[in-house]
Structures are given as C-alpha cells and as structure tokens.
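User: Could you check the structure of this?
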Amino acid sequence: MGKVYERIDGRLREFIEAQPVFFTATAPLAADGHVNLSPKGRAGTWRVLDEQRVAYLDFGGSHAETIAHLRENGRITLMWCAFDGPPNIVRVHGTGEPVFRDDPRFASLVAGFGEADGPGLRAVVVVTAKLISDTCGFAVPLMDYREERALHSEFFGRKTDEQFATYCEGKDFNGRSIDGLPALPLPLPPRS
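Assistant: Sure, the predicted structure tokens are below.
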C-alpha cells in the first residue's frame, strides 16, 4: 500500500542514498511533445540536500531533454526502485532547476558531491519536492548490482574543459530538445 510523506528523512533518505540507479521523468507543455524518461547512475552523483530537496549531477554524453523541460516548465519526477532487499519504490514529484556552470551556486553545490564530480559535468539539477510517496514495488524484479561502468569518465576524462565545451556545441541534442526547446546554454560556460 502506498503512502505519502511530508519530508525526505529517516528510512526514505536511507533508501534513496543506497540505490545505485534512479530515473528522471519530464515532459514539455505541448500536448504533442515527447515525454522523457532517463536513467541516472554513477556512485555518489545524487544526494539529499535537506528534507525537501535532492540534487544530482548532470553529465554530458546524452541528450539534454530533462534540462530543456525543466527550463520550460520545471516539472520533474524522480524514482528509485529496490532491485534487491525488501520491495519498494520511492517517487519525488516536484520542480527542478538546472544550476549551470556559470551560476554562483554551482561551485558550492558541486563541492557537496566530493569524488563524484568529474569530467563532462554540465549542471547540477536541484529538485524541490511537492509530493513524496512510496509504493510496494512487488512487481520490480530482483537484480544484482555488479559494478560501475567506467566508460563515461574514461571518455570525458580525456577532454579538457575547453574540449568538452566544443563537444557540447557540436552535438545538436545539447542545444535543443527533440521538440525544439532550448536545452543547454551554448556555448557551454566554463566552470566557475
């Protein structure tokens, strides 16, 4: 049976922080626009900021649909599933804001992620919860976590900040969403 919570604390916080993957869901305002669902991973790349806010690091290498939708309307849902242990699904429905590299808040937000900060970082997405809930997760399969993939950091780790900015400008999917909404501010600002 599902339950609604007023804050992210205790058991919910522990559950979120222990998961190796989560999912983001966003959509444009246009009725014919494309809904976006993205998996997010890499150890330490999301954290609970306080009882109402979570944040995650947004890296290059894929489309910027989530950022485009957040810039247009701010709506986002995050979901964590238990793939081992007791079944559980936690969702945070709320508003999200991409904090870009030239924003004065960027450096202090990134510092809170410690070693998870790495090459190819485009923004920090801060999500403020409007509705926090969990459900049973009885239908979620049991799966074993093996290890982190190193491909992303290996690929972007070979690029300087300037080369990464050039990479972002050269990919159509960074500047505009598949529905034509503005995504990343290009040229990508240098890290402050």
